[in-house]
């Protein structure tokens, strides 16, 4: 598909979007979209959003999922604790999955998906408080990608960025 393609991002619609043809570099992400995304949405476990070309709205160029989460106070860096209430857990938004179709490689789809996911997280936090966005990168390549958006290590598996930092990043774009 040409790099000048116009895209839209919308909630996954299993009746409209062709999940079975989506292929990315990580089989677990293919499997999730094809077999579990619809079920998790119906169970209100996660919300799945797809990026599709305007002229082929059934074709999925990429997707991400968001859900609620929390961060244990004991996992947070000491410098941040001084500014926070003494709750055991801080509310967070989980960016659970993010994937780009191999067919759209080199078109900055990952960046578009990330900006959309972070924008949605900030907007949601205005309605239901969320202090940070957390994610669990699958590998070092994913970890590096998240670092470009300000994510920092929280635990060995999890990364985070505060909602305040996300909002500042988005405003700077």
What does this entry look like structurally?
- This protein is α+β, with helices and mostly antiparallel strands.
- The chain has one domain: Aminopeptidase (3-Layer(aba) Sandwich), CATH 3.40.630.30.
- 33% of the residues lie in helices and 26% in strands.
- It contains five helices and seven strands; from the N terminus they run E-H-E-E-H-E-H-E-H-E-E-H.
- The protein has helices at 27-42, 78-81, 109-127, 140-147, 163-172; strands at residues 7-11, 47-53, 62-72, 89-100, 132-135, 152-153, 159-162.
- Helix 3 crosses helix 5.
- The mean pLDDT is 94.
Which descriptor suits the 3D outline?
Answer: globular
The ordered string of helix (H) and strand (E) elements is: EHEEHEHEHEEH
Strand order of the largest sheet: 1-2-3-4-5-7-6
The largest β sheet comes out as:
7 strands, mixed
Task: Provide tags for this entry.
5 helices, Aminopeptidase, 7 strands, alpha+beta, globular, seven-stranded mixed β-sheet, 173 residues
